[in-house]
Structures are given as C-alpha cells and as structure tokens.
C-alpha cells in the first residue's frame, strides 16, 4: 500500500473515540458555600450577595446572618462551571467561598 493510499484510507474511515467525562462530573449539582470571616462587615457581605447573585436585600441578609451565626451558608446550587464563576466573583469581593459537590 502506498503512502497516498494510507492517507486516503485514513481520511475516508477516521477512528472515532468516545469522550469520557471525569469522575467528578461537570453536570452534577454543586453548591456555592460562603464561609464566615472576621474581616468583612455584615452590610458589605449583604451588598455582595445582592450584586453577585441578584438577591433581594431580605434574602441576602438571611444568608449573611446564616454565615455569621453558623459559619457558612449555601448560596446557590447548580452546574459546576457556573458555581466556579460565582466563587471567583465572591473572591473578587474578598469573601471566603468554596464549591462542594452535592450528595
């Protein structure tokens, strides 16, 4: 078989491989968790939740108080890429935030 025959065969019958997703699964539900810190004012945290998540003041205050009293609050649940974006935005406001996989 000549080189041109090999090229023609490769073009007409390509090898198809199946993409395998990592075990962590990008489509599993993920939670955005904000953790308490002794630095930021309560009003600043409330304002940040309003800006990042678009929450009304009452809901943002409820989450802020949960962070203050319990040390953490789950602010959002959904796909991983969006959760990572929210965490990055919260870090931009100097809040301590993480993502966790739901069970």
Main sheet, how many strands, which sense, barrel?
A: 3 strands, antiparallel
CATH architecture: 2-Layer Sandwich
Give the CATH topology: Ribosomal Protein L30, Chain: A
**Quaternary structure of the protein:** single chain
Level-1 CATH class name: Alpha Beta
Please report the total strand number as a whole number. Answer: 3
The separation of the N and C termini measures: 55 Å
Residue fraction in strands: 15-25%
Uncertain stretches of 5 or more adjacent residues: none
Give the overall shape.
elongated
Mean pLDDT over the residues:
86
The CATH homology group name: Ribosomal protein L7/L12, C-terminal domain/Adaptor protein ClpS
The percent of residues in helical segments reads 40-55%
Give the domain tally. 1
Content-based structural category: alpha+beta
State the gist of this model:
This protein is 48% helix and 17% strand. By secondary structure, the chain is an alpha+beta fold.
Structure description:
The chain has 103 residues and is α+β, with helices and mostly antiparallel strands. The chain is 48% helix and 17% strand. The protein has four helices and three strands; from the N terminus they run αβααβαβ. It has helices at 3-12, 42-53, 57-70, 80-92; strands at 30-35, 72-78, 97-101. It is elongated and about 75 Å long. It starts with a helix and ends with a strand. The model has no long low-confidence stretch (mean pLDDT 86).
């Amino acid at each position: 078989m000549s080189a041109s025959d090999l090229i023609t065969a490769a073009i007409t019958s390509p090898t198809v491989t199946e993409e395998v997703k990592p075990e962590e699964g990008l489509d599993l539900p993920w939670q955005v968790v904000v953790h308490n810190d002794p630095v930021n004012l309560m009003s600043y945290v409330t304002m940040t939740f309003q800006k990042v998540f678009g929450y009304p003041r009452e809901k943002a205050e409820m989450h802020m108080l949960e962070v203050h009293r319990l040390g953490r609050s789950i602010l959002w649940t959904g796909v991983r890429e969006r959760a990572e974006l929210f965490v990055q935005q919260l870090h931009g406001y100097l809040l301590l935030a993480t993502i966790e996989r739901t069970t």
